[in-house]
């Protein structure tokens, strides 16, 4: 299954900030048990690459890298086992390096100019970030009018309730967010709480 197909199937992408690589396996278990076997592990902590490697080795979840802003980070992420690479904005160099590795790039875009730049680079699945402060679902709908070939993954300021507004749009494959994997809960080892939040979110978007 391609990454866009996986995103459309699961409809949610947990955006993870891990402070301890040893959380990788229990987190993978919590996601799989909660019914959401996919994760974007952000390059915001020093353990990101090791966490991606451990989650990829775990096998129960599809792992991507997030907050990737340089081609060098793409190399590290792919070397660790990331199958997709998410950026907060658009970088032609990052997209090119993803294409060289044969992994899916999900660059950020919130303006028509950024969407055109991404299309020029050969990418038509985009992260709409930061979604909440960039006009929300209404802005995604407006941007989808001239760009019918583009799929969006809105992320940033979304929760289990507002996710539905975005997911109602045909151009939205999935929404991303950290609400179901709170950093504090991960740091405290509260994986049952994570499983519960994930399960509740999965059930909320299935309604
Ligand atoms: C991201 O990098 O995608 C965001 O930080 C996630 O946004 P959220 O924490 O508001 O869900």
From TrEMBL:
Pathway: Carbohydrate acid metabolism; 2-dehydro-3-deoxy-D-gluconate degradation; D-glyceraldehyde 3-phosphate and pyruvate from 2-dehydro-3-deoxy-D-gluconate: step 2/2. It catalyses: 2-dehydro-3-deoxy-6-phospho-D-gluconate = D-glyceraldehyde 3-phosphate + pyruvate. It holds the Pfam family Aldolase. InterPro entries: Aldlse_KDPG_KHG (IPR000887), Aldolase_TIM (IPR013785), KDPG/KHG_AS_1 (IPR031337), KDPG/KHG_AS_2 (IPR031338). It comes from the Bacteria. One of its GO terms (molecular function) is 2-dehydro-3-deoxy-phosphogluconate aldolase activity. Keywords: Carbohydrate metabolism, Lyase, Schiff base. Its EC number is 4.1.2.14. SUPFAM superfamilies: Aldolase. Homotrimer. PANTHER family: 2-DEHYDRO-3-DEOXY-6-PHOSPHOGALACTONATE ALDOLASE-RELATED, 2-KETO-3-DEOXY-6-PHOSPHOGLUCONATE ALDOLASE. Belongs to the KHG/KDPG aldolase family. This is 2-dehydro-3-deoxy-phosphogluconate aldolase. It comes from Micromonospora rosaria. The lineage of its organism: Bacteria, Bacillati, Actinomycetota, Actinomycetes, Micromonosporales.
């Amino acid at each position: 299954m391609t990454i866009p197909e996986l995103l459309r199937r699961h409809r949610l992408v947990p955006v993870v900030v891990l402070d301890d690589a040893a959380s990788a396996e229990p987190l993978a278990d919590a996601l799989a048990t909660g019914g959401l076997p996919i994760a974007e592990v952000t390059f915001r902590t020093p353990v990101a690459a090791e966490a991606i490697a451990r989650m990829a080795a775990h096998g129960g979840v599809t792992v991507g890298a997030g907050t990737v802003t340089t081609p060098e980070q793409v190399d590290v992420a792919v070397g660790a086992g990331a199958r997709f690479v998410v950026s907060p904005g658009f970088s032609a160099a990052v997209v090119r390096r993803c294409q060289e590795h044969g992994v899916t790039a999900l660059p950020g875009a919130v303006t028509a100019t950024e969407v055109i730049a991404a299309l020029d680079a050969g990418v038509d699945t985009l992260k709409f970030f930061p979604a909440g402060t960039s006009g929300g679902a209404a802005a995604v709908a407006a941007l989808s009018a001239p760009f019918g070939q583009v799929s969006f993954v809105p992320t940033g300021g979304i929760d289990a309730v507002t996710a539905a507004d975005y997911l109602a749009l045909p151009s939205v494959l999935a929404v991303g967010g950290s609400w179901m994997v709170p950093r504090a809960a991960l740091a405290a080892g509260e994986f049952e709480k994570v499983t519960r939040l994930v399960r509740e979110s999965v059930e909320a978007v299935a309604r």
